[in-house]
Specification:
The chain has 14 helices and two strands, in the order αααααββααααααααα. The chain is mainly alpha-helical.
């Protein structure tokens, strides 16, 4: 009997059954699973930061810039402290880094939004058909003493500057893109870090930091030797701008060609395709998206240059569509000329209005160039498989 009782006791203990159930052990709470802030907490903190930022800005003289800076600082500090208290130091540090990134992004947007708003506010009223399709030829005064054409006062426009900007930029692009792309192809595909490739890379880096006025003086001196000291025309300005564009095109194209996988080149060589054809049919089409973006960046870099144009193409009030003869105007020089030499000293002088309208037109042209680059990249990019 004793052995039978012993076996039953063992069976009972093995099955885990007992007459007095033991209390469960307390679970240790994970430090990563502490309390969480509700979803609306960030919005509440942001609202409070805006209120306190407005109050702080009012104490020192209210302005949009000080209001934005105070609100951003208060939001970052308050959000980080509250997150640390509620969710722990680890999540507090993560919130601090996250809010700093968001704050830096918003602060970077403030100047951009301010510039766009100011240009739209002051330039949009001056955009009309007369401004877009008339030049400044014959305009000598403001509204009260302007020239009269068919009973309507001639207020002047920027048509000649738009034509000059498009033509000079087009010729600069035609000069820069082939030179820059071929240089990048040599550096990546043929140079292989040789002595000539290293020398080219060094000079490209030096050209990247050349001031724009130096490029204008170089082009002026070059054409003064070739055509005489009075050579001032659009092609001279295009050469000056190409000096500024080539380094950007070379660098952007070189980086895009480097990220093309070598497996694509090797597969083409394995099929017996020549190297030049591999470059034109495989490498460049694969990198065309980045190349187009680089070319657009280079165009946007030079389309707003003023100093080289003043030195090389001068100032003009009439329409000139010949880049190989006479002076030409561009939108940057048009803006400069309208501000420096107003057409009338009266308070109703439209020169400042024309300058703001030209600035808005220049921004629109840069935006169209960026959209065109994206379209070109999407059209010529290699098609993806299914």
């Amino acid at each position: 009997m004793s052995s039978t009782a012993t076996n039953q006791a063992k069976t009972t203990r093995a099955n885990g059954s007992s007459k007095t159930p033991q209390a469960p052990l307390p679970r240790k709470r994970n430090s990563l699973a502490k309390g969480h802030l509700p979803r609306f907490a960030v919005l509440a903190i942001a609202a409070g930061a805006l209120v306190l930022g407005a109050a702080s800005s009012t104490l020192t003289g209210f302005s949009i810039a000080s209001f934005a800076i105070y609100s951003a600082i208060i939001f970052v500090l308050a959000g980080s402290i509250i997150t640390t208290v509620v969710e722990g130091p680890r999540r507090g540090k993560n919130a601090l880094a996250t809010y700093l990134v968001y704050g830096a992004f918003l602060l970077a947007l403030i100047p951009l939004a301010s510039v766009l708003f100011t240009v739209l506010q002051k330039g949009l009223p001056g955009i009309n058909m007369h401004f877009l399709f008339h030049s400044m030829n014959g305009v000598t005064g403001a509204i009260d003493n302007a020239s009269v054409e068919n009973g309507t006062p001639v207020l002047g426009g920027a048509y000649h500057a738009v034509v000059g900007t498009l033509l000079i930029t087009l010729w600069a692009t035609l000069i820069s893109v082939p030179v820059g792309m071929l240089t990048a192809v040599y550096l990546v595909e043929y140079g292989k870090n040789g002595p000539l490739a290293r020398a080219i890379t060094f000079f490209v880096d030096v050209m990247t930091g050349i001031p724009s006025i130096v490029a204008g003086l170089f082009a002026t001196a070059l054409f003064a030797v070739l055509l005489g000291p009075t050579a001032r025309m659009g092609i001279v300005a295009a050469v000056a701008l190409s000096v500024l564009m080539i380094p950007t095109v070379v660098r952007s194209t070189e980086e895009m060609l480097k990220i093309v996988p070598n497996e694509l080149r090797e597969a083409s060589y394995a099929l017996g395709v020549r190297k030049w054809r591999t470059i034109t049919k495989v490498v460049i089409p694969t990198a065309i998206s980045g190349i187009a973006s680089g070319v657009t960046l280079a165009i946007a870099r030079v389309i707003g240059e003023t100093a080289p144009i003043l030195v090389t193409a001068g100032l003009a009030n009439n329409i000139n569509a010949n880049v190989f003869g006479n002076w030409m105007a561009t939108l940057p020089t048009f803006i400069y000329y309208q501000i420096i030499t107003p057409t009338s000293p009266t308070n109703i002088d439209p020169s400042i209005q024309r300058a703001w309208a030209a600035a808005l037109l220049l921004i629109v042209m840069v935006m169209v160039l960026n959209l065109g680059a994206r379209l070109i990249a999407s059209l010529f990019a290699p098609k993806k498989g299914r």
